Protein: Crp/Fnr family transcriptional regulator
Amino acid sequence: MAHEVQKSIARQSLLLKSLPEQHVGTLLSHAIWRVYERGETIFLQEEKAQAVHVVLAGWVKLFRMSPNGSEAVVSVFTRGESFGEAVALRNVPYPVSAEAVSPCEVMHIPIPVLISLMKEDPEIGISILAATFTHLHSLVAQLEQLKAQTGAQRVAEFLLNLCDCEAGDCEVVLPYDKMLIAGRLGMKPESLSRAFTRLKPIGVKINRNHAEISDISVLRDYSVSDPTET
Structure:
């Protein structure tokens, strides 16, 4: 039996929170709850899709491997976020691989259970489409970042999203290693290091897996308009 805290987190995910309670209860009763260690594979690219996934704790990355063996990070998900909805609707293999990048807990909802409920109530399909649209919107935002922002601006925005306050100074913990941060932001590790260096004059200091930000407002202004580019 899954812990009530885990169920509460799952209920707040985009996939489940808009559904009537009786459907949520059904999905939770059929869900599979797994704990993964850092570096453990959740599923592989081209593997037959079996479930839709909700992260309950930790971080999970989705990535593709190119024919030459290089890795392209597609997205990174954390607590309360779901993935795999579009594959569930299309009944096709996973187009990406998923890996735990920290110790994490994931809830897996078997696809046959979702499909069965969708036949009973179209609201299930609408909820899945809403989650899929959110993923698409996120990918469009990532593309916009790559096209419109410098590497240092992308890093600045990444750090701002980790802050739990709106102004003043702040210290944040980098949620995963710098290589993954670079991949997530469409950069090479050496480019990430240069970006951190460019942020030093505006009060950002990186100390291992911590970032000390002296003034959030200054960093926010920089993320919108890099003075070295104007």
